[in-house]
Amino acid sequence: MKSINGALAVRSNKRIDVWGILIGFTLIIFSLICLLPFVHVIAKSFSQDAYVIANKVFLWPLGFNIEAYKKIFADQSILRAFGVSVTITVLFTIIGMVITILAAYALSRPQLRWRTFLTMVFTFPLFFHAGIIPEYMMINNLGLLESIWSLVLPLAFSSFNLIVMKSALSNSIPVSLEESARIDGAGHFRILWSVVLPLSKPIIATLSLFYAVGRWNSYQDALFYIKQNTDLRPLQLKLYYLIIQASESFQLEATQVSLSNPEILKASCVVFATLPILCVYPFIQKYFVQGTMLGAIKE
Q1: Per-residue b/e over 136-146, b at no fewer than 16 CB within 10 Å?
Q2: Which of 41, 188, 283, 295 is most buried, with most CB under 10 Å away?
């Protein structure tokens, strides 16, 4: 009998190992699907024109060449757009997180009156959107056109991030800690600063990443709101204008640059615009999974 049970246990372990291998193999395949296009763009940005024209560049650069990057760094408009994107992303993330944290803390407190109704009011924009034209009219009436605040304020609040933050605070902050702080004479702002925020680093890091990546990759609002003031165009909008140009000549700020294949400059701009936001991930990676799981807990 013992031998039969042992044989069954061995077979069970073998099945688990097989499924583990299949799952790992599937994850590797999907990871490569996400990674290889970016590797291809990097290889193309470092290759010579002739190889790119002949479609011989795949995952490794041929005829190593950095002329496209030299032209990018020589163009003051692209560097200025990069600085604008960094400024907008930092402001957007800070303002968005301040609003989200304050609103989520208030809505997560059981003593708040009408908190269910207020939560419904905050989540209403998830289901309905006024549209681009009313949004543009509102920005125009507020006098924010051709202003950096037109790229920061309208989207500085996310109902989805608020729900995630509220759920995390409701389930991860013990009520006893708040009661102890109240006995010591602490008010709401003191409790938020000294108790809630130190215990909420994972979810704060996760939502900050969501805000920063969303703002960094967005260009549609800048396309609508920034028309004449070219100094306020973010990097993604500059990249958009470069990509949609069908001609083989790109007018940079000081010189007329002719390329036999504009795909090289496009690929270089993509790499130049993507690398800064990728550099943020290693610093918050340890919080990311934990923060995502905290926000996924249902009340």
Answers
A1: eeebeeeebbe
A2: 295
Q: Which residue has the higher pLDDT, 296 or 99?
A: 99
Burial of residue 264 (number of CB atoms within 10 Å: 0-12, 13-18, 19+) = buried
CA distances from 234 to 83, 94, 208 (A): 8, 18, 20
Closest CA to 59 of 22, 94, 32: 32
Q: Taking the alpha carbons of 174, 177, 183, 188 in that order, is the dihedral positive or negative?
A: negative
Alpha-helix residue ranges (DSSP H) falling in the chain: 2-45, 49-53, 67-74, 76-108, 115-123, 132-141, 159-172, 175-183, 188-191, 197-199, 201-217, 220-225, 235-244, 263-278, 281-296
Indicate whether 36 pLDDT > 50. yes
| Residue whose token pair is 């389930």 | 171
* Confidence check: pLDDT of 299 > 50: no
CA separation for the pair 100, 121 (Å, rounded) = 14
Q: In this predicted model, what pLDDT tens digit does every residue of 268-293 receive, in sequence order?
A: 878 888 888 777 777 766 666 555 55
Angle at 291 between CA 285 and CA 296, to 5 degrees: 135
- pTM across the whole model: 0.75
| pLDDT at residue 246, as a whole number | 40
DSSP type of residue 126: G
